[in-house]
Amino acid sequence: MLASSNKKLGNKGTDVLTFSLYLALVGIGWAMIYSTGAGLEFYPKSLAPFLFTTAVGKQAIWIGICLVVFIVIFFLLDHKIFKLLAYPAYVVTILGLVLVLILGVEINGATSWFRFAGFTIQPSELAKFGTCLAMAAYLSSWSNKMDNLQSVAIGIGIWVLPAALILLQPDAGSALVFASFLIAMYREGLTPLLYLLGAFTAGMFILGILFPPFLLIGLLSCIVLLIYNYNLPRARLAVFGGIVLIFAGAVWAWLEGHQLLVLLFMIGLTATTSAYFFLRQRGQLAKILLFGLIMGSAIAFTSNYLFNNVLKPHQQDRINAWLQPEKLDKQGALYNLTQSKLAISAGGLTGKGLTEGTMTKFGYVPMQQTDFIFCAVGEEQGFIGTTAVITLFLILLWRITVIAERQRSVFNRAYAYGVAGILFVHVMVNIGMTMGLLPIIGIPLPFMSKGGSSLLGFTVMLAVLLKLDKSRAEV
User: What is the pTM of this model?
Assistant: First the structure.
């Protein structure tokens, strides 16, 4: 009876909703690529020149290739092969990332592509799939070792290695996506404390760019003193009032130009209070707070130094466009973001219609077929169109999590969450950067942006997911 039940579960077929969402997003993307090219290039009447000489034609070829790949994966391959070849696939993708640094061609300042017969292949897009398989394979054998620091380090190292190689190209946007594997690691039991630590690190890194590090050290010291105050057994209110007075005096002295004196005073006061807590046998609290103070200070100094002394001017401009746009010229470094916002807002409620967007059709927004394809949706389909696209992505992400949670295999579940994490970061960052909510780091919108490597990578990931889901009862 059990075998019969498993067989029945294992033959449920494809998840039609997920496949339909895939087709819908690919179709919308192709229509937007066609529309953005309508005013920029000549569309030949005959089929062959149209397919091989235009951006929309080449994208149509890639869509055809991806559909064939999807069919092969779903109907012809055994689901067990993906776990079997997980590590070999990872090694192959790592080799591809190494070779592209040596043999690749440079496009837009990054050596990220191989070129074959007029087409380009970006190994970093396929590396996401290889890393997703490797992470799933590792997590399926690691899930019972959550308290083992070595196991955690190896798991993080699996996605840090390709991310580091991609940074060498340099392509910070694609490298950032690999941090999404922390979602899969969390689902398999990684302690939430590491995520809090990551959030603290990110926050201090951003603040270190915006404010002088010495000021941040002073503020951190005040926070530490306030936490100490909360943990005092008596006279909390009196001590709190004293800390407020000290903080007010420190601010006044800082504004009067005595920054070094204020900093030394705050550090001395924090060290004295920490010593008091150690003597009161509250050393664990003191250790945690001092660790946070030292770590936060180090991050603030590091981010400030990297931003001002290591990053190139155009890289600084990308960050300033997000954090400090008032410092940039709207016709210079802020031009892309300004045009992007104008294009989206120009669409109004219903949009101007396909091929009717003036900013889209005449190329006012750079990279509108790739990184800024969402602007074309905004101008030509309006608020209704952008909402529809976002809704489709949200439904797809929800559906993938449903697929993940019904898996009986840890490998299948971890792989599904890996795919969901990659999609989530791509969608959030791409749409966020077109509206100025996140920095412009240059990653495509899944299934919609022009680019065969991106479309092929996401198609393979989704096809494998649906294949594993179809056979979910066969553990």
Answer: 0.84
